[in-house]
């Protein structure tokens, strides 16, 4: 199975390095992406918007589908969840499962996060004190130093552009949500209560919930456990 891994803000393909061994050992073909503007700190991020990131994922889907003829699995962490959801919307017939890692599908008209501090066309990784305590669970001082040393500013418009969706067949693609910062029981409570935050998730017809208690970056804090959960979700989607 081809698995496309989409990182969250400030991260490139290498952020999945400690997660992929379990998937590769099981025979899957893993394709972690570095999205436009995230190639380096010095990359030009002017004019790069949310749709550019979505288009990069769609291009990867098309390329893999042409090579193998098979459908693919999409994995999105954090802000990458909004990106893979738009890619599912663009290619619903080519996705066997979408997996959201401490993230979820963003509905039409929503934005990922337009409140992050920015500098020109860039959204740098904020100081740790601007994050919630739940974000930082298990993220040791050493991990924080390593994260900040590898962090690349996010293109401003990726954070602030409105999500565009067009094809309701996206609701037919099976979904796995891996909940980290808070238990999945809260998500199901919000869905039952009609909370607008989870309206798009509530519309999806086949959703499974898995719990991995840790902070917002399980690829750093619990990479082995995350790899095993992804492997199980991928195998169920075959």
UniProtKB/TrEMBL annotation:
Domain of life per record: Bacteria
Keyword Hydrolase assigned: yes
InterPro entries: AB_hydrolase_1, AB_hydrolase_fold, Sec-Metab_Biosynth_Hydrolase
Single GO MF annotation: hydrolase activity
Pfam families xrefs: Abhydrolase_6
PANTHER family reported in the protein's UniProt record: AB HYDROLASE-1 DOMAIN-CONTAINING PROTEIN-RELATED, ESTERASE_LIPASE_THIOESTERASE DOMAIN-CONTAINING PROTEIN
Protein name as it appears in the record: Alpha/beta hydrolase
The organism's taxonomic lineage, starting at the top: Bacteria, Bacillati, Actinomycetota, Actinomycetes, Micrococcales
């Amino acid at each position: 199975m081809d698995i496309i891994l989409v990182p969250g803000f400030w991260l490139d393909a290498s952020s999945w390095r400690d997660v992929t061994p379990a998937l590769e050992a099981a025979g899957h073909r893993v394709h972690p992406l570095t999205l436009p503007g995230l190639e380096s700190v010095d990359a030009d991020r002017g004019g790069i918007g949310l749709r550019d990131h979505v288009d990069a994922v769609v291009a990867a889907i098309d390329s893999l589908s042409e090579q193998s003829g098979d459908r693919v699995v999409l994995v999105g962490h954090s802000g990458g969840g909004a990106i893979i959801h738009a890619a599912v919307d663009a290619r619903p017939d080519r996705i066997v499962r979408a997996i959201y890692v401490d993230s979820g599908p963003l509905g039409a008209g929503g934005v990922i996060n337009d409140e992050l501090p920015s500098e020109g066309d860039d959204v740098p990784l904020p100081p740790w004190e601007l994050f919630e305590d739940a974000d930082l669970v298990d993220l040791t001082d050493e991990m924080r130093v390593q994260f900040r040393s590898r962090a690349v500013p996010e293109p401003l418009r990726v954070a602030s552009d409105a999500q565009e969706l067009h094809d309701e067949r996206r609701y037919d693609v099976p979904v796995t949500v891996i909940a980290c910062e808070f238990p999945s029981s809260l998500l199901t409570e919000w869905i039952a209560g009609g909370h607008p935050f989870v309206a798009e998730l509530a519309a999806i017809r086949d959703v499974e919930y898995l719990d991995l208690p840790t902070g917002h970056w399980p690829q750093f804090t619990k990479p082995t456990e995350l790899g095993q959960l992804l492997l199980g979700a991928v195998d169920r989607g075959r």
